[in-house]
Design goal:
Rcf2, flat, 78% helix, 110 residues, mainly alpha
Length: 110
């Protein structure tokens, strides 16, 4: 005897939203894999802006120290992002996903 699972409209809607959310996350991940250096650059800029905003909220620091701190924080964030990009590249290479992605550009051997 087969049992059918009946879901309400809101339950079905929430399941479809979860499926859409997964595809959005997957599409963001694919974009990051394809544009590693852009991602690192965006993280660097956001590090500079965020650190500058935080440092400017401290009134008892000299401006030169605030700028140096902002650059230091952004540099640390950039190094972490580069390390993350290197790990993504390593695992892409190890899993063969990168070879599959570029196989369509390589002409077949005769």
């Amino acid at each position: 005897m087969k049992h059918r699972l009946s879901l309400s409209y809101t339950q079905q809607d929430s399941l479809f939203k979860m499926a859409d959310a997964k595809t959005k996350v997957e599409s963001v991940r694919e974009w990051v894999v394809e544009h590693k250096l852009r991602t690192v650059g965006c993280l660097w800029i956001s590090g500079i802006v965020g650190s500058s905003a935080y440092n400017w909220s401290k009134p008892n620091m000299k401006t030169s120290v605030k700028i140096i701190h902002a650059r230091l924080h952004a540099q640390a964030l950039t190094l972490a992002a580069l390390a993350g990009a290197a790990l993504v590249e390593y695992f892409d290479h190890k899993s063969g996903a990168k070879a599959e992605r570029y196989a369509k550009f390589v002409p077949p051997k005769d």
